[in-house]
């Protein structure tokens, strides 16, 4: 079920631990705007160049397709590697899947307290050079979390959360709506534990 942008939907008629369904809708505004602008430019050039200079127009068409790919490389990457879905008790990020019950409840609780990227940047800006050097030294000793779904870093325009599996692996999840994702993960994790008696 698709909700509003960044929102998920919950269903209550599924078996225990599988009742939560969430899909994070990726923003499409940038891809739509660049595609419309490039298409309008190609049509305008076609009205000037066709039919006499069809070879030039075909070159412009190929160049426009290349520009569309370059301008939309980040949205395409997000669609392949950072698409988030929770369904049937499984968390899928891009092409990688992990059982929601494998995520620790403590790490989900801690993820709510993690600063957003903007808050983290403000914290770094308020530190002195010596404090930054010490923090950098300490961070080298800690193994960074693995980005779930793949990729080198969190894409532009996305926030991040870090959760941990019950086997101790730290996973970084890039998201557009961290609160909705954390709500869905917490609810799915709680549902997977079953009723307490």
Strands of the widest sheet, in order across it, are 1-2-3-4-5
The number of strands is: 8
Low-confidence stretches: 1-16
Overall geometric form: extended
Average pLDDT: 84
The value of Rg in angstroms is 22 Å
The separation of the N and C termini measures 32 Å
The helix-and-strand class reads: alpha+beta
Alpha plus pi helix count: 7
Order of helices and strands: EEHHHEEEHHHEEEH
Oligomer state equals single chain
Largest sheet: 5 strands, antiparallel
Strand content: 15-25%
* Share of helix, binned: 40-55%
Keywords: Membrane, Transmembrane, Transmembrane helix
Protein name: Integral membrane protein
Transmembrane segments: 30-50, 56-76
Organism: Streptomyces ambofaciens
List the SSEs and their pairings.
Layout: E1 9-10, E2 20-23, H1 29-49, H2 54-71, H3 73-81, E3 84-87, E4 90-93, E5 96-99, H4 105-113, H5 117-125, H6 129-141, E6 146-147, E7 159-164, E8 170-175, H7 178-192
Parallel strand pairs: 6-8
Antiparallel strand pairs: 1-2, 2-3, 3-4, 4-5, 7-8
Protein name: Integral membrane protein
Keywords: Membrane, Transmembrane, Transmembrane helix
Organism: Streptomyces ambofaciens
